[in-house]
Design a protein that fits this description.
5 helices; single chain; mainly alpha
Amino acid sequence: MSDSLPEDSPVPELKRHAKGKRPGFYETGGMDEAMSMIMVLASEFCVLRDRVDTIEHIARIKGVDLAKEIESFEPNLPILEEREKRRQGFLERLYYVTQKKAAEQSSNDTEERYHEVLKDIAET
């Protein structure tokens, strides 16, 4: 019996997180997260620009008026779904640090802390 999955089996998506606290580089709150998001955007932009450049070169070689084709293109439902899946993956990567930080902070909540917050609210 083989340890590999059959070809038609969905591959489980594993969430991987680095353990421990991330190093901070900026004193201003949120700057590390913002810089992380900027770097993800910059990386995505560079990859996208290279792909567009490749498409433009291939189209020019093949004699295709790419601008006209793009303007008249109407994506069908499977294409729209694929784009949305890609967009969601991108947003997960973009907000990764912020979501991880929020999860870490929420995991530190205890019932005692909850009652302290209620007491502080009641006193104000």
